[in-house]
Amino acid sequence: MKIEGVCPYCGQPDLVMRSLPLEIPFFGDALQTTLLCLHCTFRHADVLLMKEGPPVRYEMRVDTPRDLWARVVRSSNGTIRIPELGATIEPGQRGESFVTNAEGVLSKVRDIIEFVRRNADSATSRRRAGQALARIESMVAGREPFTLIVEDPTGNSAILHEKATKAILPEAEARRLKRGPSFDLSR
Question: What is this structure's pTM?
Answer without folding.
Answer: 0.77
